[in-house]
Amino acid sequence: MKVAIITDQHFGARKNSKLFHDYFLKFYNEIFFPTLEKEGITTVVDMGDTFDNRTGINFGALTWAKDNYYDRLERMGVFVHTVVGNHTAFYKNSNKVNAVDLLLREYKNVRTYASPEEIKLGNLGVLLIPWINEENEEETFKLIEDTSCTVAMGHLELSGFKAHRGCVMENGMDSNRFEKFSMVFSGHYHTRSSSSKIAYLGNPYEMFWNDVNDTRGFHIFDTETKELEAVNNPFRLFYNIYYEDTNHQTFDFREYENKIIKVIVRKNTDGKKFEMFLDKLYQVGVAELKIIENFDYNNGWVTSEEFEALESEDTLSILNRYIQEAETNLDKELIQNIVNQTYQEACEMV
Questions:
Q1: How many folded domains does the chain comprise?
Q2: Which of 232, 253, 293, 340 is a Cys-bridge partner for 265, taking CB atoms 3.0 to 4.6 Å apart?
Q3: What is the distance between the alpha carbons of residues 158 and 171, in angstroms, rounded to a whole number?
């Protein structure tokens, strides 16, 4: 039996941005649903953070999710196993009040898991593990010890894995607790990474600048052979353009329509030609344009003469790398976690 595994879809992201939802929909219409139909897949495992805002729902986002995702799955006869993630649990110390249960009760083909539970996917026993918090921690750990399931899927915060490119999480749960399983798949971190038996499968699409050029998509899991196949999302939203006195007359601007662009200037000896290049970008209809002409850290809080920001790096990668390289007795992991959380919250307010 083949099942689809998808995670961290974040419906309603970026304040229910139409730009982002149009980008999401292209993935679902041209990659996700056609693959389900081609492979004859009738079961989806959603490993958490289906909706973006844990404290409320934008009615437009809910309508979008139902019209473009859940209604279509229902018509196709696809059953969805959905675990509660940290973005869909209303309280930080409990999963009982959660968005997926409250918003999707009308769908008979959707089942929500706020507590850990053993299920059968074909002939394979799988332990589903929602977001672990103060209320369900004891129950979850006991079931992990007692279960006969060889595969676990959930929404876990484990140490030693990439939260996003360039940032490895040093806090979180010890992965040794899951040593008994032959395979563990998890959502929560948006970039793909794996170690030994544990794999973070990553979210389906780009959502922030630190996602640029980072492969996204979903996965197909064969419960008989235990083979995991990645189905990549070829569509991008964020682009870096490196300007080096680039000729606007020969440059192909067409792929940048409705995209978020960062122009990184490596060489600019003719300001008029540069303005014409930017005008062409605006004419093609870019959604957002940022220009980076140089990095100057010596006038700010960064004073190390040895630290150099790479022009290909996004803001968060630069900050994380500086923290790691800084000579200080402060807790770097704590500082990095604070910076990452603050940056993420700032992005979500845009």
A1: 2
A2: 293
A3: 7
